[in-house]
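User: Teach me something about this protein's shape.
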Amino acid sequence: MNISKEMDINFRNFNIVDKTPFFYGWVIVFVAGVILFCSAPGQTYVNSVFLEPMLKELGWSRTVYSATYTMGSLTAAVMMIIVGRVLDKFGYRLILSLLCILLGLSTLWMSNVDSIYKLFIAFALLRTIGQGSFQLVSTNLVSTWFIKRRGFATGISSLGQGASMFVFPLLAHLLIQNFGWRSSWQILGVIVLAILLPLAVFFVKDSPEKVGLLPDGVKKDETDDNEEIISEINFTFAEAIMTKTFWFLVFSVIATPLIITGLHFHHVSILATKGLGSGLAAFTMSLFGPTALISNFFCGYLADKIPNRYLMACGQISLIFTMLWLVTITEIWQAIIYVSMASLSMSLVHTSYTVIWANYYGRKYLGSIRGVSSSATVGFSALGALPFGIIYDRTQSYDQALYYLILIPIFCCFCSLMATKPSKRLTTEN
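Assistant: First, the predicted structure itself:
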C-alpha cells in the first residue's frame, strides 16, 4: 500500500477536513506560509548572521567559508531534481514530515561543526531542505489545491517568506548574543520542529481529490460552470522537457536568485561605497521583510488577472530599474526606495513563476517538473555572491558589476515573453 495512503488511514479519526467550515485549501495556504516561514535556517538571510561569530571561533577565512557555502548550495541544486521526483511518488505529507526531522538534525550537525568537510555537509543539508525543498513543497501544495485562484493563494502563502525575512535575522542575532552560535543553531532546529512538524503530520493533505474535494472549493455539481478545473491537462516530466516553453521558463528566472542573492550578500558593502554606514545599511536590510509582505500580496492578486509571462517580464524590467537606481544612491531615502523596488521585482517574478508551472503543465507531475526549475533557482542563487565580488576586486566598483550584470535580466525578460503556453495532444490520463 502507498505510504501516504497508510498515513491517511492512520489519521482518519482526526477528520479535520470535514470539520473545517470553509474550503480546506485555505488551511493548506496557511501551512504553506508556515513552511516558507520555517525555511529560515537554510536561507542566506539567516546564515549571514552566523558568519562573523563562526569565523571568529573557528579561525577560517571568509573566502573558505564563502566557497564552502557555494559548494553546499550547488550540491543542493542537484539534489532538488531528486526531491521533485520523490514528492510525486510519496506525497507532500510524508516528505514534509521527513524534511522537518532532517532539518532539525541538520541544525544539530551545524552546531557541532569543527572542520571544513562538516561545514560543507551542513550547508548542503540546510540549503537542500530549507532553501530548496521547503520552497518546492510550499509552492506546489498551493498550486495543487487551487487553479482559478492560484495566484491569489500563492501571494497569501508568500507572506510567510516576508515574515521570515523580518523575524529570523533578528531572532538569530539575539540568540547568538545570549547563547552563542552553536546553541543558537540547535534552538532554531527545535523551533522549526515544534512549529512545522505537527502541521505536516495532521494538516497537510496531498491534494483536494484525495479527501473528496475539488480545487478552489468547487462543488461537484458545479463542474459544468468550471471548465478550467475539469479539463485540466497534465504533462508528464518527459513530455514537459520536450517543449521549448519548459526551457524558456527555466532560464527566465535565473536573474532574480543570482542578482538578488548577490545584492543581499554585499548589501552592507555596497551601501558603504555610497556613503551610508553599517547601521543604516542594517536598517534598510531589515526593510526587505515588510516590503516583501506587501508586494507578495499585491502580485498574487495580479497573477490571477494578467498572463504570468507578462508579470515575469515586468519583474525583470523592475530588476533592471532597481540595479540602475542602486548606482545613483547617496541618501537613506534612496536606499529605502531601492529596497522597495527590489522587493517588488522579487515578488513579481516569484509569484508568477510559481503559478505559471501548474497553469501550463498541470498538477499531477508538478513535483518532478518543478524539481528541475528549483534546481536552477538554487544553483544560480549559490553563484550570486561571486560575480559581484570578482568584478569589484578587479574594478573596485560595485557600479561596474551592476552595469555588466544588467544583461542577465534583459535575457530573462526575453525568455519570459517567449514562454507561451505549450500544447499537448489529448490522451487519457492513467
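Now, about its shape. Residues 3-208+224-418 form a domain with the Growth Hormone; Chain: A; fold (CATH 1.20.1250.20). The first helix runs from residue 3 to 10. If you'd like, I can walk through any region in more detail.
User: That's plenty for now, thanks!
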